Amino acid sequence: MTQSTHRAGLDAATGGRPPSLRRPGIVLGIGLGGFVDGILLHQMLQWHHMLTSTDTDRIGVKYYPANSVTGLQMNTVWDGIFHAVCWLAVLTGLCLLYGRVTHGRRRVWTSAALWGWVLVGWGLFNLVEGVVDHHLLGIHHVHAGDQQLWWDLGFLALGAALVAAGLLVQRRAVPYEPGARGPGAGA
């Protein structure tokens, strides 16, 4: 990369095009979506924890009911591990973003392209976590009980809607151009 393309924030490996916000946006979205899940569903609403359905799981994990002290302690540990992974995803996404953006960082944070990719990442989190944990492994459900299948399917539908909305938002965004200046300089 020449000094002039480096100063402009252009990537020689991409043929001089500005660096993409796709990967940092998706990784940030995965971490932030995990935090929304963990904080809202695990902690505030207390609908489930990481291992609350292991009495009916498909992999033979010991059952830790959330209504016992020992069960709640073990579920809290696994919720903490889950949050640590979310934190690492956000940190990784921020590092990826920082590595791509050398100028105009304020424009990046207001970029529809970035936030579109964050929505895609959040939706991908819901889809992967929903399919793997709720359906394949069965270690927990969105809201356990008679209607748990509908809650789990709704979680997947929300994930698909987030991916679709994110793709629409980022497709309509003005591409981020780190070397440009002013309000019309890219999203």
Overall shape: it is elongated
Portion of residues in beta strands equals under 5%
Largest sheet: none
What is the end-to-end distance?
A: 24 Å
Helix % is 55-70%
- Number of alpha- plus pi-helical segments: 6
Description of the structure:
There is one protein chain. With 187 residues, this protein is mainly α. Helices cover 62% and strands 0% of the residues. The protein has six helices and no strands. The chain has helices at 3-8, 22-44, 69-100, 105-109, 112-136, 148-172. Helix 2 packs antiparallel against helix 3 (69-100), helix 2 (22-44) crosses helix 5 and helix 5 packs antiparallel against helix 6. It starts with a helix and ends in a 15-residue tail after the last helix. Mean pLDDT is 87; it is low at 1-13 and 182-187.
